[in-house]
Design goal:
This protein has 150 residues and is α+β, with helices and mostly antiparallel strands. 45% of the residues lie in helices and 23% in strands. It has helices spanning 2-15, 21-30, 37-47, 73-83, 103-112, 138-149, and strands spanning 49-53, 59-63, 84-90, 93-98, 118-123, 127-132. The radius of gyration is 18 Å and the shape is elongated.
């Protein structure tokens, strides 16, 4: 739910002039997301939204120019530490078990790292299939992921 809400928030602030948390809450409700102001406040912080200059000397929520907001190394480390339960290897596939509801967020973070050893991921609710490239031993990829969790 959180990942879908974050995606919707990104779309809303990219397409509309959202000046207040109240406006953002209202727009989310139009899309079926019923959230509190406290949740919106946390989402804004997690997404890295800031007030940026808009037309007519006003300010709206947006992403800070020149700053990558989609993923950070520290966020990936935190996601892995907080949500990964175990990993098992089968040929070039690694099955990663996560806490319920967190697999898609973890997979997104891993994909965003751009590692050449990782061809891609497929996530459900609490499990992720990671596909190791032919040039990589899956055990090496597991160890690389484990090193981020330390």
């Amino acid at each position: 739910m959180k990942n879908r809400r974050h995606k919707m928030i990104r779309e809303i602030v990219e397409q509309q002039n959202i000046e207040t948390q109240y406006q953002l809450t209202e727009e989310l409700m139009k899309h079926g997301f019923h959230v509190t102001q406290a949740t919106i406040s946390r989402d804004i912080k997690e997404l890295g939204l800031v007030k940026v200059a808009s037309a007519n000397n006003t300010f709206r929520y947006g992403f800070q120019p020149g700053v990558a907001t989609i993923n950070t190394f520290d966020r990936t480390r935190k996601m892995l530490r907080d949500n990964v339960l175990k990993m098992e290897i089968g040929h070039n596939i690694i099955v990663m078990k996560t806490l319920p509801g967190t697999a898609q967020g973890v997979a997104f973070c891993l994909d965003s790292l751009g590692w050449k050893e990782l061809l891609g991921t497929l996530a459900g609710d609490d499990a992720i299939f990671l596909v190791a490239s032919d040039t990589c031993e899956p055990q090496d990829l597991v160890e690389k992921i484990h090193s981020l969790m330390l």
